[in-house]
């Protein structure tokens, strides 16, 4: 009996590895988990877009639960998520701030002029270095930052009404309590 | 057209094909990125080969033409110039992008299965093989076979006697 069990062990081990790999295949390889979840936002200061008063800095993210949206005027999915973000800011009362990623200032301003500006403030990340500190690897990406200035949630790709409904709003509610 | 004319044409074509294949791949590293210090540049290249381009995913940042890959290559060189060791540079990038950015996953509890499974399979397979082979040797030597019963013994003797007769 014991001997038979020993014969079965490699097979069981193989099956285990197989299941682990299979589960790996079901993951979306584009969705890379953030290394910064539950960590404080990286220390940074970004200047405002020309003609604007407020830029974005790590200090400025403390105090309120904030959605930080990384966008660029040249990014097509950013345009798709823009109405979702606008609703989130205007109707659901979530503070949304932005990192304008590797954009020309005039392009960004024209884009906001055309599509509307839901952002409480925007920091211009011209060389993309601050985005790298945030672990951004593509635009758009969105981060939910709690009152203490810690990153609590990250969404890669355009925000959809589903993501807002199912993930962001419940989390905002919870974080506002804390 | 004679054969003599065709053959050089073909050789030429083949030669072109071979040369095209042998030509070095287009370099992702741009001339303006290269550091003046060759030793440091070599280190930068080695580090770049370890880092995954997160946009194209199956290329290293050394291979990739994605803008993010270029930014990361510049970042690696900047850190080296600032006096970081190779490990510190890799740490700087993994702090931001996680272990996923490393093309060779590090050995830790979460990757134990990944690194350990092949060796475990080998060991279990070897144990199984040894047990199997020992079992077979036992069969050959008759160790596992019970001795003949009285009845069988009688029948065997009867057969042998019949044979001798």
TrEMBL record, chain B:
GO molecular function, one term: metal ion binding
Family: Belongs to the CcmH/CycL/Ccl2/NrfF family.
Function: Required for the biogenesis of c-type cytochromes. Possible subunit of a heme lyase.
Gene3D superfamilies, sorted: Cytochrome C biogenesis protein
Protein name, per record: Cytochrome c-type biogenesis protein
Signal peptide: 1-28
InterPro entries: C-type_cytochrome_biogenesis, CcmH/CycL/Ccl2/NrfF_N, CcmH/CycL/NrfF/Ccl2_sf
UniProt-listed CDD domains: CcmH_N (cd16378)
GO annotations of cellular component type: plasma membrane
Organism annotation: Azospirillum thermophilum
Transmembrane spans: 112-133
Membrane topology: Single-pass membrane protein
């Amino acid at each position: 009996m014991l001997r038979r069990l020993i014969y079965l062990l490699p097979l069981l081990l193989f099956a285990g590895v197989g299941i682990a790999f299979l589960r790996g295949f079901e993951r979306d390889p584009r969705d890379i988990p953030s290394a910064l979840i539950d960590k404080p936002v990286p220390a940074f200061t970004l200047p405002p877009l020309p003609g604007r008063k407020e830029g974005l800095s790590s200090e400025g993210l403390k105090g309120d639960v904030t959605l930080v949206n990384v966008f660029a005027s040249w990014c097509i999915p950013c345009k798709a998520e823009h109405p979702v973000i606008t609703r989130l800011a205007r109707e659901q009362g979530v503070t949304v701030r932005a990192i304008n990623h590797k954009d020309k200032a005039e392009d960004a301003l024209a884009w906001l002029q055309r599509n509307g500006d839901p952002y409480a403030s925007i920091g211009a990340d011209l060389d993309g270095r601050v985005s790298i500190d945030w672990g951004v690897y593509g635009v758009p990406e969105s981060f939910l930052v709690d009152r203490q200035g810690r990153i609590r949630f990250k969404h890669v790709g355009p925000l959809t009404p589903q993501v807002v409904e199912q993930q962001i709003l419940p989390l905002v509610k919870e974080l506002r309590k804390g | 057209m004679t054969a003599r004319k065709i053959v050089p044409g073909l050789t030429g074509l083949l030669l072109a094909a071979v040369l095209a294949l042998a030509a070095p791949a287009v370099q992702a590293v741009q001339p303006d990125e290269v550091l003046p210090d060759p030793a440091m540049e070599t280190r930068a290249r080695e580090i770049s080969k370890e880092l995954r381009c997160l946009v194209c995913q199956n290329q290293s940042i050394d291979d990739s033409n994605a803008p993010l890959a270029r930014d990361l290559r510049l970042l690696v060189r900047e850190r080296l110039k600032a006096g970081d060791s190779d490990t510190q540079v890799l740490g700087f990038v993994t702090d931001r992008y996680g272990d996923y950015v490393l093309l060779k996953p590090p050995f830790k509890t979460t990757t134990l299965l990944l690194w350990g499974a092949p060796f475990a399979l080998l060991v279990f397979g070897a144990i199984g093989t040894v047990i199997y082979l020992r079992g077979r040797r036992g069969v050959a030597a008759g160790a596992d076979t019970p001795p003949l019963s009285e009845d069988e013994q009688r029948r065997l003797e009867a057969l042998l006697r019949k044979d001798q007769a």
